[in-house]
Amino acid sequence: MLSNHFQNAYVTPDIDRAVALLAERFGVTAEPMRIDVTQTFRTADGVGEGTLRLALIQLGRLEYELIQPLSGNVAIYADAVMPNQLLRFHHVGMRTDDFEQVRAESERHGRPIVLEGEAYGIRFLYADARQTLGHYLEYISAPDAYWEAMQQRGK
């Protein structure tokens, strides 16, 4: 359940300042891919659209995802934002092609699925591992072209 880890994700109240902080304090010079996305999320609160501002920074084999929740069905992100903390760890992302196995394992270990969605041919779901690990586990299934492009950004 923790294999194929490719991403660390953080929520932020201000994505521009967060990107600048990574550059200033950690020497991150990679140019982020910036995306504003509105998509449908399925959560315990129901199904609804949510809008996020994203910055994806590829450093070698690890992607850093910064998430600024903007509006709509995005409580899973917005509830984690701390106004006085520019970056707050939120989840790790793992690659999978077997969502049924992820669901079964998550259920067996008491980690409910708390968010699901799909955008641009990429499917994802979040298992709530906060009781044991302190954060969510995101599982992502994407076309090969997505993974290949991500590796090219990291070179």
Task: Describe this structure as you would to a colleague.
With 155 residues, the protein is of the alpha+beta class. The protein has a single domain (5-153), classed as Roll (2,3-Dihydroxybiphenyl 1,2-Dioxygenase, domain 1), CATH 3.10.180. The protein has helices at residues 15-26, 75-78, 99-108, 144-153; strands at 5-11, 33-43, 46-59, 62-72, 88-95, 113-119, 122-129, 135-141. The chain has an 8-stranded mixed barrel. The longest helix is centred in the first third of the chain and has 12 residues, at 15-26. It starts with a strand and ends with a helix.
Quickly describe the structure.
By secondary structure, the protein is an alpha+beta fold. It contains four helices and eight strands.
Give the overall shape, derived from the CA principal axes: globular
Mean pLDDT: 93
Q: Counting H and I runs of at least 4 residues, what is the number of helices?
A: 4
Runs in which pLDDT lies below 50 for 5 or more consecutive residues are none
Helix content: 10-25%
What class do helices, strands and sheet pairing give?
A: alpha+beta
Using DSSP, what is the number of strands? 8
CATH topology: 2,3-Dihydroxybiphenyl 1,2-Dioxygenase, domain 1
Name of the CATH class: Alpha Beta
Radius of gyration: 15 Å
Any key phrases for this structure?
single chain; 155 residues; alpha+beta; 2,3-Dihydroxybiphenyl 1,2-Dioxygenase, domain 1; eight-stranded mixed β-barrel; 4 helices; 8 strands; globular
